[in-house]
Amino acid sequence: MFDFLAKGGILVVPILLCSVVTLAVFLERLIYFSRVRIRGFGLVKEVAEYVRDGEPARAIDLARGNKSPMARILASALEVIDNDRETFETVVVHSTEEEVRELSRYLQVLATIGSIAPLLGLLGTVIGMIKAFMVIQQMGGKVNAAVLAGGIWEAMLTTALGLAVALPTIVAHSYLVSRVDNYEAQLQDGMVTFIKAAGR
Fold first, then answer.
1. What is the residue-wise DSSP string for 141-158?
2. Cβ contacts of residue 127 below 8 Å, gap of 6+?
């Protein structure tokens, strides 16, 4: 297998490295998402009840005692709940964006790999074709079909490898982005519920 890949040239190395990074990022995000508890409408309503009852300290303690993204946003909102509405909404929006950024961490890496892997493969193919035609020139135009075919398939190997890495990377990126979008919608819904329930 290694001998086969080695025929693709030096650009096989960065393409394989891209595949390793893709797998690492995808698994890391899956593990992270499995530990994240987004749905917290029960927590939202309970915190809002404490606020309505004039017990903001208990509401903050409840929010800080929970490690979910929703709880962290609630804790930030409760710290400025007595401020004007504009400040309150600004803090809520900012806190929500911070949580979404944390959920989206490393996803740009996948998008980049999905874009550059085919280009690396194409570059490897171009370099391989150049080498093949250099061999033809050195042979003085006496083309040996076996030599020519061998040079061409070795050149095409990097394109195939680049596409083989890019396609699952794009699928993985799309899947993770859809998860983040779903989490973001849940966070926004939760904060709308809190604002209404707390009478803000």
1. T---HHHHHHHHHHHHHH
2. 9, 11, 155
Which token pair is 71?
């709880």
DSSP codes of every residue in 186-197: HHHHHHHHHHHH
Number of H-type helices and E-type strands within the chain:
8, 0
Q: Read off the pLDDT of residues 111-155 as tens digits, 9 standing for 90 and up.
A: 999 999 999 999 988 888 887 777 777 776 666 666 666 667 777
Amino acid at 125: T
Q: Are 75 and 64 in contact (CB under 8 A)?
A: yes
Alpha-carbon distance of 43 to 54, in angstroms, equals: 17
pTM over 0.70: yes
- Counting Cα atoms < 13 Å in the Cβ hemisphere of 34 gives 6
User: In sequence order, what are the residues at sequence separation of 6 or more whose Cβ sits closer than 8 angstroms to the Cβ of residue 15?
Assistant: 117, 120, 121, 124, 158, 161, 162, 165
Query: How is residue 110 annotated by DSSP?
Result: H
User: What DSSP element (H or E) covers 1?
Assistant: none
- The pLDDT assigned to 169 comes to 97
